[in-house]
Amino acid sequence: MGFGDLKSAAGLRVLNDFLADKSYIEGYVPSQADIAVFEAIAAPPPADLFHALRWYNHIKSYEKQKASLPGVKKALGKYGPADVEDTTGAAADSKDDDDIDLFGSDDEEESEEAKKLREERLAQYESKKSKKPAVIAKSSILLDVKPWDDETDMAKLEECVRSIQADGLVWGSSKLVPVGYGIKKLQIQCVVEDDKVGTDMLEERITAFEDYVQSMDVAAFNKI
Fold first, then answer.
1. Which residue among 4, 56, 67, 197 is least packed, with the fewest CB closer than 10 Å?
2. Which residue windows does the record flag with biased composition (Acidic residues) (predicted)?
3. Cβ atoms 40, 88 nearer than 8 A
4. C-alpha–C-alpha distance, residues 12 and 3, integer Å
5. DSSP line for 145-199
6. The pTM is what?
7. pLDDT tens profile 13-66
8. Which domains does the chain have, with CATH numbers?
9. In this predicted structure, what is the pLDDT of residue 91?
């Protein structure tokens, strides 16, 4: 197992793919494993390797506490994906040969493997993301619907209000609340999907029953 040469572009790509679904090299907290890999990197990963760069910047913030992090630091080749050969021991000896290799190098082969691994992980991530249900923003609204006078048929008024049907609108409980001089207002609850139903639409539809409704007010509005 291993990352390959972490001073090379191919090694950094393998590290980036490895961290696509992980926060740390081992476990769920920063440890000596992260320090071992961090110290093997010559410079911050480029911006397009965002998983590796995110991890690098995070571990860098522990620079003053690195000696106190848990775990025992092992050889670099003990960390990383199992299907990548550890080439760290031979990296220094082969550097000059790599510079004049006209027929490609192990880095190029690793690049193809890393690319394939990245594509597989991206496909898995997209598949998981597509299966997550979309979050639907909803609100609970309490409406005060006022009649013209004490002779208004409140049962008929409520019937008119509940007759309003729309996608994303569900009527709830209701009650009559005295407002004075024998007049009662209808207080009615509803739940709406924010993208589909608004208070302006409700007011327009409810006050359209002008034989019964004098006005409509929003008594309470809460996000669910």
1. 67
2. 95-112
3. yes
4. 8
5. EEESSTTS-HHHHHHHHHT---TTEEEEEEEEEEEETTEEEEEEEEEEETTT--H
6. 0.43
7. 999 998 988 899 988 888 999 999 999 998 999 999 999 999 999 999 988 888
8. 9-78 (no CATH), 138-223 (3.30.70.60)
9. 41
